[in-house]
Amino acid sequence: ASPVYADGKVFATSRDGVVNVLKTGKTFEKLATNRLPDDFGASPVLSDGVIYLRGFKKLWAIGETKTSTK
What we know:
Mean pLDDT: 92
Largest sheet: 4 strands, antiparallel
Number of strands: 7
Order of helices and strands: EEEEEEE
Number of helices: 0
Helix content: under 10%
Strand order of the largest sheet: 1-2-3-4
């Protein structure tokens, strides 16, 4: 999977379900390491504050819940 860039961060997903979040800049800074119980081969997709990850078992959507103001 290819890393993706959004909001000043790089999201890098490994095949074994580890997603590293890196801050862009002149010095290396790892912001987070997240582990999901799935395997991944596809690059993540980011849209409207949600990261979508297509695993071998499930489609994951991770982000904040938005409240409708209708």
